[in-house]
Fold this sequence. Notes:
Arc Repressor Mutant, subunit A, alpha/beta, 3-stranded parallel β-sheet, 5 helices, two-stranded antiparallel ribbon, single chain
Amino acid sequence: xxxxxxxxxxxxxxxxxxxxxxxxxxxxxxxxxxxxxxxxxxxxxxxxxxxxxxxxxxxxxxxxxxxxxxxxxxxxxxxxxxxxxxxxxxxxxxxxxxxxxxxxxxxxxxxxxxxxxxx
Length: 119
């Protein structure tokens, strides 16, 4: 099962993690797919808004689809889905190949601590 791990961490923490992952890759260990956000607020804005999360949940493990097909699946207007897809593409959550978009993961695991969020 391909899993995308989403984390909230500082730039320094991300660089440290990248060094560790690079060392694992050189030793032949499997490197997992990760997406890092600098703040919980940025994570929430990019992925966890209800309409965007609905798109993500519908795309997990599914075949690539056009934005028009996706709008039909989530029962929303094309323009709103298009805008959400653009944000998810910019955030590195989903991918585009030709006219189709995809989320090549069956599962998304999100990690952050309560003290990562600004009060």
